[in-house]
Q: What sequence folds into this?
């Protein structure tokens, strides 16, 4: 190739371009589509998350009103309809479930939590919903249902201490004080939330034997 004349080099370049020019243009076009498409998608997701966050903040303001259960339920439904693919929909459902339960609508709260467990885009949110569901089931006297909820969803080290606390409540409700004591101790050692309350429950258990 070093001995080619300028004419031969020019002809070789023209031939290569005839053979490969279309592919080069196609590759460049595809690359531009991917780059700009990716940027558009990222911008869309960022904007969607910002809107969902704003709606969720509105829910938190509503939750400060003790009589806002109906409002929270409607806001949660709207959040789910508009931003169901974001974690904010699940978070909104958790807030709504709390408001509904405090308003005496246990069945509606349970249904909302079950939906989060089934549809949450993040496993951690599903487990959080399961914890809250088990606590409501315990409070409502549905001990077998609570046990099933705990068994089905206590599969993560991050939540094991909190589930242990609920297991303690379940065992105490059944009169199995030894199991309750062991579960409470496990919860405290694992750093469960509200450890002081769990310690109080442990201290208030009747003495063994």
A:
């Amino acid at each position: 190739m070093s001995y080619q004349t300028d004419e031969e080099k020019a002809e070789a370049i023209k031939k290569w371009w005839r053979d490969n020019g279309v592919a080069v243009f196609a590759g460049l076009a595809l690359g531009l589509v991917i780059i700009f498409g990716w940027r558009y998608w990222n911008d869309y997701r960022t904007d969607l998350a910002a809107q969902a966050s704003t709606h969720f903040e509105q829910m938190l303001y509503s939750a400060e009103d003790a009589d806002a259960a109906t409002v929270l339920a409607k806001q949660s439904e709207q959040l789910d309809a508009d931003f169901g693919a974001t974690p904010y929909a699940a978070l909104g459902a958790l807030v709504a479930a709390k408001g509904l339960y405090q308003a005496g609508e246990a069945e509606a709260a349970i249904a909302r939590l079950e939906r989060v467990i089934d549809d949450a885009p993040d496993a951690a949110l599903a487990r959080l919903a399961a914890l809250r569901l088990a606590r409501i089931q315990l409070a409502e006297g549905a001990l077998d249902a609570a046990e099933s909820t705990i068994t089905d969803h206590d599969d993560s080290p991050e939540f094991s201490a909190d589930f242990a606390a609920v297991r303690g409540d379940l065992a105490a409700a059944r009169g199995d004080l030894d199991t309750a004591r062991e579960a409470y101790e496990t919860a405290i050692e694992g750093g469960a939330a509200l450890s002081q309350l769990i310690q109080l429950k442990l201290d208030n258990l009747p003495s063994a034997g």
Notes: The radius of gyration is 29 Å.
